[in-house]
Amino acid sequence: MKTKEIVLTALFIALSFIGASVKVMGSIAFDSMPGFLGALLLGPTYGAFIGMTGHLLTAMLSGFPLSFPVHMIIMIDMGLTMAVFSLVYQKIAKKDDFSLKGVIVAGILGVIMNGPISLIMLIPFLLPAIGFAGMIAFLPVLSGIAALNIILACFVYKLLPYRIEKVRKKI
Which residue ranges traverse the bilayer (predicted)? Predict the structure, then answer.
């Protein structure tokens, strides 16, 4: 691990903590924006770690409203979402500094993983507690907030000065 990677990871985790305080519904918050940005800048491993830590912070601040085991599953899903988002973006963008096509494809996949796939993973735990209607009620909120987190992360990534892009390439 390089010092720059550690410092940037810590910065993004701190930003996740701030985002975790901006809640929309229960433990659904703006904690994943730094994870998506970290996935773009630092790659899939760091992005996954930031995303997982961000969700854990949100769940802790919310008092684990869906239970500790459910939030651990969501945490794993967040890590997978960040890793896949990063890998898909890298595959499409290749050497480009910014790829609109990469952002769109990776973003759509990120929303699908963070919304419907996350809910499918939680069916055995949430369906008995909140029913089918409750599960469906989460879908637009989860997907919408995921989309906003991704859009914000991509917007910030696009606006980063060229010199920061050069630093990213050296990491």
Answer: 6-24, 36-58, 70-90, 102-126, 132-160
Total structural domains within the chain: 1
- Domain of 13, CATH number, reads 1.10.1760.20
User: What is the pTM for the complete model shown?
Assistant: 0.90
Q: Which domain holds residue 50?
A: 3-170
**Sequential DSSP letters for 102-164:** HHHHHHHHHHHIIIIIHHHHHHHHHHHHHHHHHHHHHHHHHHHHHHHHHHHHHHHHHHS-HHH
CA-nearest of 104, 147, 151, 142 to 121 is 142
